[in-house]
Amino acid sequence: MEMGSFLELQFQSGMEYYKGEVNIARLNTGRAAIWHAFRVLGCTCIWLPYYQCDSVREFLTRKNVKLKFYHINKNFNPTDLKPTDNEAVLLVNYYGVMSTNRMKSLAKPYKNVIIDNSQAFFNVPIDNCMNIYSCRKFVGVPDGAYVIGKGAESYVNEYEQCYSSDTSLFMLQRIEYGCEGKAYQSRQINEHRIDTEDCMKMSKLTRTILDGTDYAYIKDKRIQNFAIAQELLGGLNRINASEYYDAKTVPMVYPLLIEDDGLLEKLQTAKHFQGHWWSYICKEMPENCVEHWISRFMIPITIDQRYGKNEIHSLCEIIKG
Fold first, then answer.
1. Can you give the pLDDT at residue 321?
2. CA distance 104 to 7
3. Tens digits of per-residue pLDDT, 64-77?
4. Residues 88, 114: contact at Cβ < 8 Å?
5. Within a 10 A sphere around the Cβ of 238, how many other Cβ atoms?
6. To 10 degrees, the CA torsion angle through 311, 316, 318, 320?
7. Which residues contact 159 (CB under 8 A, 6 or more apart)?
8. Could you give the CA distance from residue 171 to residue 187 in angstroms, rounded to a whole number?
9. What is the CA radius of gyration of the chain?
10. How high is the pLDDT of residue 85?
11. pTM above 0.85, yes or no
């Protein structure tokens, strides 16, 4: 045990949201968590939605996992998903706006289900499924993910330890410089690390921050901000953002789909740094498919705990203006 020398950053402890050592794995990234869950299930291949981050597909391909793909409709329901009993299915909680009951109903027909709650950190883990959670979409950490489900702790001791402090400077720079310039460049270094890492144990830095985080505050602010955004933008939105929502749902973003190719540039000019997700899909899928339509026009609007009523109102005024 080290004692003395210089003072380090200090955090509260004992507040980690997902605790325990049985049926839980603490890993470095969401994409690694999906692979780990697939490994625990012991299936022969995995079905992925076409509408999904390409980093998941690339990571699984590096791991020589056999992939199959399925489409979704405008209500985010699978349309051609037909796995056999020895094939896994990845079901995504898009934008974090889908309740636990919604995900249960999606999972019910299938045997080997991985629930991708990367965008829904607070959704309750579903029994008889492997549940994936990404930490950095809800908490200011450089990386981190959980896998929760029967036997999730299997194989973890085989993985190397992740160290994230070497590429975490962007988190401090953001405080002093903002998110552009130096901080953005430093963040890209961290992204490169994440993109090239194998499946690893969660870094001690990430877990220390997670263990000292006020999760009740995060929940309350996101729920409040989503309600404001829905009230102000719901009439313009081409999708029903609250269709699968309930009182316990804690979203990552407010999913806004307006068929306006110039909206994103207008927001960025006003220094509201939103962005389309998974634009690569527009190059791979035909224009008449749902995945192309969503990828082209969907803007995930920031509603996280850093902001309140005034900021959300200001953002919505720019969108409506």
1. 79
2. 47
3. 999 999 999 999 99
4. yes
5. 13
6. -170
7. 27, 198, 199, 200, 201
8. 8
9. 20
10. 95
11. yes
User: Residue type at 223?
Assistant: I
Per residue in 286-313, pLDDT (tens digit) is 999 999 999 999 999 999 999 999 999 9
Can you give the length of the chain in residues? 321
10 Cβ partners below 8 Å, 6+ apart? none
Separation of alpha carbons 195 and 119, rounded Å: 18
Q: What are the beta bridge partners of residue 253?
A: 302
- Rounded CA gap, 146 and 21, in Å? 11
3-state secondary structure the chain: CCCCCCCCCCCCCCCCCCCCCCCEEEECCHHHHHHHHHHHHCCCEEEEECCCCHHHHHHHHHCCCEEEEECECCCCCECCCCCCCCEEEEEECHHHCCCHHHHHHHHCCCCEEEEECCCCCCCCCCCCCEEEEECCCCCCCCCCEEEECCCCCCCHHHCCECCCHHHCHHHHHHHHHCCCCHHHHHHHHHHHHHHHCCCCECCHHHHHHHCCCCHHHHHHHHHHHHHHHHHHHCCCCCCCCCCCCCCCCCCCEEEEECCCCCHHHHHHHCCCCCCCCCCHHHHHCCCCCHHHHHHHHEEEEECCCCCCHHHHHHHHHHHHC
d(CA 238, CA 297): 10
Say how far apart CA 225 and CA 316 lie, in whole Å: 11
Q: Which amino acid is at 230?
A: Q
